[in-house]
């Protein structure tokens, strides 16, 4: 579902702007008319709305795919609303079943605490920490106890729970569903009750859980929250959602040169989607830039601008400038002007296999031997890790002193 554009002439300038900010890049805003009423009430009373995002600390690092919802939080924060960054230290002990075809193993308390230590520090690279309310859902979940958990479970039916796609599919195919998995959406929904949230954000895979929050708020006599789902960001390959397991990600703690180079490796088509979801430029600025490219400007100029913006956000402007210079030096240094060009598919792919497909070695074994001997360079950098896999992008490969190929890997 594509969000409706703002056309109502009855909205004030402030509410119209807030709605535009809300809808930018979003998948769904539900119910939109309720959100407009909340915005109008906020404008009339001067009371900021409470906007919630929950993340479970299932891993120690955040990649830029996670920042799509953080960017939206920052945009809403910048127009005056209260954002709540909720760390799901309690819900992580259950394990989110979203998108799973099997029971997700819960993490230990030690693993959760170790991961949670880095989450807010990383999120603060996007959010304004001085204007962010940070909470942990163990604060109200632990005190519930067995009696409270049973009372909460009584407020939602099994039939409604089985409407959830992943539960329904697993049930139909005879795959196990543990009872504790039903508790996850209930506990996430109860977070909205505890925080009295007006809007909850999440990826498209979280829609069911967000709707449970609306239901439970009504059960507890609260005005129900609206929900805003953001699309899952495609990774460097432009196909699969960004994921560490698919090696198509950019970690926000990666060094500046690596981050810059990875952004430059994405396709010209994917670049515009990343602009919408990741850039802090206005939609008008992005549209003007796209028009320039369509009129003949080199799309690489736009991609460099995006790479510098993202790199500067997680490092600094100086680091982004240095990363650009480093990339230019590596891509040009010592490489002949006239070298063969190859197009190879199958990313991510091992370096030795890529050398073979590019015609620079006869076999993977020869490629690995050349790596062991320090004779392989990718973009002028000596490769020493035979297990390295390269994501989609453009690379200059060098074997020895005289063999070169410019490879477009997809």
Automatic annotation (TrEMBL):
Entry keywords, A to Z: Aminoacyl-tRNA synthetase, ATP-binding, Cytoplasm, Ligase, Nucleotide-binding, Protein biosynthesis, RNA-binding
Catalytic activity: tRNA(Tyr) + L-tyrosine + ATP = L-tyrosyl-tRNA(Tyr) + AMP + diphosphate + H(+)
Residue stretches in coiled coil: none
Subcellular location: Cytoplasm
UniProt cross-references to PROSITE patterns, sorted A to Z: AA_TRNA_LIGASE_I (PS00178), S4 (PS50889)
Tagged with keyword Protein biosynthesis: yes
Top enzyme category: ligase
Database matches in SUPFAM superfamilies: Alpha-L RNA-binding motif, Nucleotidylyl transferase
NCBIfam families cross-referenced by the UniProt entry: tyrS
Protein family per UniProt: Belongs to the class-I aminoacyl-tRNA synthetase family. TyrS type 2 subfamily.
Quaternary assembly: Homodimer.
Protein name: Tyrosine--tRNA ligase
Species for this entry: Variovorax humicola
Gene that this sequence comes from: tyrS
């Amino acid at each position: 579902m594509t969000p409706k554009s703002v056309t109502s002439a009855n909205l004030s300038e402030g509410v119209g702007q807030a709605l535009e900010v809300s809808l930018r890049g979003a998948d769904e805003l539900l119910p939109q008319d309720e959100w407009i009423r909340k915005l109008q009430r906020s404008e009339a009373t001067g009371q900021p709305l409470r906007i919630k995002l929950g993340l479970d600390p299932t891993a120690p690092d955040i990649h830029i795919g996670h920042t799509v919802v953080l960017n939206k939080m920052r945009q809403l924060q910048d127009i005056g609303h209260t954002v709540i960054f909720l760390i799901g230290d309690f819900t992580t002990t259950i394990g989110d079943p979203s998108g799973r075809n099997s029971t997700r193993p819960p993490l230990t308390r030690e693993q959760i605490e170790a991961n949670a230590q880095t989450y807010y520090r990383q999120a603060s690279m996007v959010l304004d920490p001085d204007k962010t309310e940070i909470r942990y859902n163990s604060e109200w979940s632990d005190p519930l106890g067995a009696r409270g958990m049973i009372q909460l479970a009584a407020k939602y039916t099994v039939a409604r729970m089985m409407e959830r796609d992943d539960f329904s599919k697993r049930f139909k195919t005879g795959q196990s569903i543990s009872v504790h998995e039903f508790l996850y959406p209930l506990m996430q929904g109860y977070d909205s009750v505890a925080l009295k949230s007006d809007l909850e954000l999440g990826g498209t895979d979280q829609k069911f859980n967000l709707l449970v929050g609306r239901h439970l708020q009504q059960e507890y006599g609260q005005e129900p929250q609206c929900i805003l789902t953001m699309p899952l960001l495609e990774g460097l390959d432009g196909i699969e959602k960004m994921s560490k397991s698919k090696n198509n990600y950019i970690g926000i703690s990666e060094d500046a040169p690596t981050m810059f180079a990875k952004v430059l490796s994405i396709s010209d088509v994917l670049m515009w989607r990343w602009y919408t979801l990741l850039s802090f430029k206005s939609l008008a600025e992005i549209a003007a830039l796209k028009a320039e490219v369509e009129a003949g400007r080199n799309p690489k100029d736009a991609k460099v601008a995006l790479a510098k913006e993202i790199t500067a956000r997680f490092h600094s402007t100086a680091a982004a400038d240095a990363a650009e210079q480093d990339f230019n030096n590596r891509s040009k240094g010592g490489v002949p002007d006239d070298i063969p060009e190859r197009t190879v598919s199958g990313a991510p792919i091992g370096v030795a296999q890529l050398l073979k497909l590019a015609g620079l070695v006869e076999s993977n074994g020869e490629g690995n031997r050349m790596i062991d001997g320090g004779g392989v360079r990718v973009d002028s950098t000596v490769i020493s890790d035979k297990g390295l896999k390269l994501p989609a992008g453009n690379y200059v490969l060098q074997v020895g002193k005289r063999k070169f190929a410019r490879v477009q890997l997809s």
